[in-house]
Every structure is written in structure tokens, then in C-alpha cells.
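Page 42, continued from yesterday. The earlier attempt failed because a stray header line got pasted into the input along with the sequence. Redoing it now with the clean sequence only.
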Amino acid sequence: MNADFFDIHILWPAFAAGLLVTATHVPLGMRVLERGIVFIDLAIAQIAGLGVILADQLGLEPNGWAGQAVALLAACAGALLLTWTEKHWPEVQEAMIGVSFVLAASGALLLLASNPHGGEHLKDLLVGQILWVNPRILALVAIVYAVMLGIWFAYRSRMGRAGFYLLFAVVVTISVQLVGLYLVFTTLIVPALATRRLGATRPAMAYAIGVAGYAGGLWLSTVGDLPSGPAVVCVMAVIAMLAAALLRPSREEPRGI
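This time it went through. C-alpha cells are written below.
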């Protein structure tokens, strides 16, 4: 990649994918941070990735409907399991989330051990290939995300533990295949963390950090010939740290969205 590669026709699908992920992950990230379960997306995303790898091992097309169904079923099963552990052992829920992540990651490594392209598949799962996202799937993703956001804003106060985990599982399963696990976690937690002391302006500032992170990271990766996913992660983190240092904490009680 070089300066001549800086082409809007290549970058706009990646940026659009980043905007879609930001739209859903900012409100969910605020709730995750509020509940103190910040690593839940890593666990569920890893479980969904295990489902994708399992589908591939079974001879199913990972990007086809069957492969997506296996990934979604795996993520929902993981979500229901974490719902059960939170109900029965709330004092160790964060530890259970960590154990779930490690088990899913280890299972993925075992399944990929005999695959000559296993390392490449694992890298795609973690880092993602946001620069090569298929523009044709963005409209469908936007529709699904819009439905998920509609459900969230309409029923979040009545959703309950199981409803939250299942909605979260659907969103993360889609997102991790769009942008990779690292970007999913970063978009979920970093904007919410940087704006945690703000009041009514918190949602707008969190969205601004997410959008600026994707825009700046994609630009940096293009002009600097750098991997897109890690570039976005680092740029978003820097922007979030600057915002946290410069923004004045509000005297209002912080409000989620």
C-alpha cells in the first residue's frame, strides 16, 4: 500500500463499517462499563469466532448463511451461559467471563492446529480485515444494527439480564466478522471509558471519539502503509486519552443511552 492507494472507493466501505460498529457499540459499551463486565465482548466475540472456525472445519462456508448461523448459535449459547453464571455467581462474573474467553480461544487453537492456514484465520479473527470489507453486506448489517438499536432504546430498562446478553451476542457476532476482535473491544470500551465523567454530553462525545478514531486510523494506515485494525485501535486510544484529559467533568449525574 502506498500514497497512490489512498482511494475513496477503497476507504469508504471500511469507514462505513467503522461507523456502523460505533453506532451500536457506544451505547452498549456504556452499559457494559456500568455493570463492570468490560471483557464480556472479548469472551462472546471469541466464542462466535470459535463457531466460525467450527463451521469451516465442518465444510460450511464461514461467510455463508450456515456458517453465520453456527457463529450466532455459539455466541448466543455463550451469552446464555454467562447469564446463568451471573445469576448464580455474580461475585465472580468477571472471572467467569475470563475463563470463557480462554476456553474459546484454546478451542479455536486446537481446531486450527491441523489447518495450514490456521495462523492466517486466527489473525483475521483478532485483527480483522476492515480495509477489505465487502460493501455489499453493509446495507444488510445496517438494517440488523438498526433493529438492534431500536430494541435497545425501546426496551433496555425492561430487557433483563438474558435479553441484554442475547442482544449483545448478536451485535458482537456481526461486528467481529466486520472489523475483528480488537476493534470490537476498543470501540465498545474506549469511548465509554474516556467520557465516563460527563453528563448529558457523554453520548455525543463518545460517538465523536469513535468516529474520529476510525477516520484517523484508516488515514494513518493508508499513508503510513500500516495494518488498518491496529492503526485504528491506537489512534482511537490516543484521541480518547486527549479527550479524557481535556474534557471537564460534569456536575450532572452521568447518563447512559
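Notes: The chain has one domain: 3-246.
Reminder to self: strip header lines before submitting.
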